[in-house]
């Protein structure tokens, strides 16, 4: 132990959060419709498994890309040897065009401003290394993606200070909440280097409003700090209101020639929008050439393999495919999300109205035994161990109010979702029956106690009367 680094022995990785513990429980007893129908259903994993058939059928039709060929000739050797950390130009071009397409081509992106990374995980950490020193702070609105504790803090030593958002305004960011977080950081002697938001939000499943984005730009302008917009779910918006990228706001406000232009950075990845988390394809987009140069050098520690880049540059350049994929994928996501919402409704559970992401932000406050995080954990354990659904408690997302849970819907089939909702409904019904019998028991005890108290007082009254006589 003594010979190991502090990084190895400290627990700021966040692996002990209930978010990861739930996954471990699932791994021990995973649901399978035939082999393990009583197992735990995984609803704590933000994966999109609804549209695999689309890239698969594209691969079947594009033998050159899948077989590492160009015009029928093998390029195996070329790909095996390619290791330039600037990335394949064709892939960078295809990726920025795809990012523009997702944003309705209202903004364009320059391939020279993009840095390829092994997923958004690596992109976020790299940005921390570029923008902050150990002990500096980034402000993050709550609830936030539990992985940020690992990605932003663990190896960099950067601190996260929460911007407390609440259900009273659908967890939107407000000016007082931003200012309070900034002041809190200062009280802790932390230098604030920026704000990091996820738009669309994980775990809320909502897109940020234009006025929220304007507020953020005003705040970072005023405080002279950075803004990172993690837009990993930008192509996973399936109903209105549509997605507005931070880049669109900068352009609309003609801020290209101002210092703030170079202080806004976008994080992107194909893990969610194309459902390819295993391919490890992420990116940083920045208007600051120094950040781009430094991040490019750092990307040596987490490059995207050249065969992945080659394959995806062909896929993303096929505009017919990307258009069809987006349209079909959105339809499927919307259908599955509404199945979750109606299933929850049948169980008497509401959730935040959402239009994006692979999850819903579910309100189970009425099922808590008390308005505390202990009660939230108690409920979470019953849902994981008794109901056998792995969902993520709000506390793992640093939510400031107990009783909210993130429930994922796109990593399971329609039938599994149906079963999950049946399990949840039976649980809620049993809680209601228990509460009812508990109440009846309480009422009958009260009646008994009233009689007893009455008798007692009657008795003492009687005794007193006897005495007085
Ligand atoms: C907001 C957010 N950022 C980053 C990541 C990490 O993504 P990747 O698989 O591309 O590393 C996730 C994954 O869930 C996420 O939700």
From TrEMBL:
GO biological process, one term: fruit ripening
UniProt keyword terms in alphabetical order: Ethylene biosynthesis, Fruit ripening, Lyase, Pyridoxal phosphate, S-adenosyl-L-methionine
SUPFAM superfamilies: PLP-dependent transferases (SSF53383)
Entry keyword annotation includes Lyase: yes
EC number(s) reported in the record: 4.4.1.14
Statement: the UniProt record of this protein carries the keyword S-adenosyl-L-methionine: yes
The protein's required cofactors: pyridoxal 5'-phosphate
Catalyzed reactions: S-adenosyl-L-methionine = 1-aminocyclopropane-1-carboxylate + S-methyl-5'-thioadenosine + H(+)
Pathway stated in the Swiss-Prot or TrEMBL entry: Alkene biosynthesis; ethylene biosynthesis via S-adenosyl-L-methionine; ethylene from S-adenosyl-L-methionine: step 1/2
Alphabetized PROSITE patterns for the sequence: AA_TRANSFER_CLASS_1
Example GO molecular function: transaminase activity
Source superkingdom: Eukaryota
Domain Aminotransferase class I/classII large, residue spans: 41-424
One Pfam family hit: Aminotran_1_2
Enzyme class: lyase
Protein family membership: Belongs to the class-I pyridoxal-phosphate-dependent aminotransferase family.
Functional note: 1-aminocyclopropane-1-carboxylate synthase (ACS) enzymes catalyze the conversion of S-adenosyl-L-methionine (SAM) into 1-aminocyclopropane-1-carboxylate (ACC), a direct precursor of ethylene.
Name this protein carries in UniProt: 1-aminocyclopropane-1-carboxylate synthase
Organism in which the protein naturally occurs: Gossypium tomentosum (Hawaiian cotton)
